[in-house]
Amino acid sequence: MTVSSTHRRIAKLFAIAAMLVIAGCSSRPADEPPLGRVRGKVTMDGKPLAGVDVAFLPEKGRPSMATTDATGHYDLWYINRTMGAKVGPHKVFVRPTEMSPEEAAANGSRGGAPVAPPPRIPAKYNKRSTLTAEVKPGRNTFDFPLESK
User: Fold this and answer.
1) What does pTM read for this prediction?
2) DSSP state, 6?
């Protein structure tokens, strides 16, 4: 091996290492669109709506989802460990959390007490949703005060 080929080989190794470091330090994948962090609260007739799915569906691209906690709060996930939703307009859907038959059987009772049935959510908030949101870069808060009638 000549000196120049050794130098070229070392230079290639450094270039590959630098690309790996840059790729590893990147805050998001190359194909990920700009995102805004989205949080909020869902209520039904003024009371927190726990255990429901909230989905933000952009005009184009991947939706973001969350499930409300016991206080009705949600925090959207885009993909894997990435929080947020695509920047831009979204149609918003609120629906009971869907469980597989196995999950439903496993959650059918806790300590002998039956689990409450999923809340009835009017179609104007799910199947024929009229809810919308405009996600901006940075932090966004969207509260959804739903009405049962």
Assistant:
1) 0.70
2) H
- Residue 24 maps to a domain: no
Over residues 90-133, the pLDDT tens digits come to 999 999 987 555 555 555 444 545 556 667 899 999 989 999 99
Tell me whether residue 58 is in a domain. yes
Displacement of CA 36 from its chain's centroid (Å): 11
Q: What is the pLDDT of residues 77-94, one digit of tens each?
A: 999 889 999 999 999 999
Q: What residue has token string 């190359």?
A: 30
Nearest Cα to 148, choosing from 122, 130, 125? 122
Backbone angles phi, psi at 34, to 5 degrees: -60, 135
The verdict on residue 74 lying in a domain is yes
- Domain span at 139: 35-146
